[in-house]
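Comment thread on ticket #2218

A.B. wrote:
> Attaching the input chain for the structure job we discussed in standup.
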Amino acid sequence: MKRIGNTFRIILNTTISLVSLLFSQDGKLVPIKLELPKPMFIGTPQNLNVKNLQKPLGKPRPAFLAPEGTENVALEKMVYSSDDFPVIGEIEMITDDDKNATEGSFVELGPFLQDVTIDLGANYKMYAIVFWHFHKQARVYFDVVVQTADDKDMTENVTTLFNNDIDNSAGFGVGKDMHYVETSEGKLIDAKGVTGRYVKLYSKGNTNNDLNHYIEVAVYGLPVK
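C.D. wrote:
> Ran it. Output below, let me know if you need it in another format.
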């Protein structure tokens, strides 16, 4: 029992040391400044028959902590898309800080696998990526993949932060993340301090139709020193 107790203390002290090291490197942790839009569900949500669907939290999402000074570094940054001619909206709306689901606030891309890429303009250390596809109805979007990289072609220092493609139909491997219902909170992904200049998001239709939508993409980070 004494040996077990000593082992536990060693593990505990090591954990405390690691946490202290991370804290000293990144500074004081505070909630990110994330202003959420007004909930916009209209009508009764349909019966979503989707495999690997995450259960609703049933309460507001907890605040996300990041180093002091972390801000949305994607605001008004350049956006590229696989669909050069959106059905609705303009690509630059994806980083204009308008998170509402009303008409004139979202971009509608064509069917099949589509993507948007945000150029942050420089390398940043990213702590959270939050994005809204469409939250006027309870929808689930398929083959949602989020990657970061140092180059626009996504070949250098590529990191996949999220992948809920259950059958590899998007070609990035079978994802282990769950499908989720779109809400006004958006989808928050812990980027775990990954560094990169570009953020790319993929999707392939939703439970309502084959089209792809984006309201806003926010990237919370700090410049790389």
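A.B. wrote:
> Thanks. Noting for the ticket: The longest strand covers residues 114-132.
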